[in-house]
Amino acid sequence: MTKPSPSCAAQPSLARKFVLQELQKLTQGGLSLKLPEGATLTLGEKDAAALAQITIQDENFFQRLILAGDIGLAESYIA
Description:
The chain is of the alpha+beta class. The chain is 42% helix and 19% strand. It has helices at 6-9, 14-23, 60-78; strands at 30-34, 40-44, 51-55.
């Protein structure tokens, strides 16, 4: 069995692409995501009065969110 190359491991997962695609649809409020590699992505209204901030430390967050919905979100927050 071979190990994936670093460039392959750094690519965003399909789950991540799907979640971010859906979050792009935000029309009210704002959401700032700090991604595992350190990049920050702001979604929704850029100058919203209330801007929620989420720091994602593990790429598995996106898969948990898709597979378990709000429970997956809560479990990821606790973990």
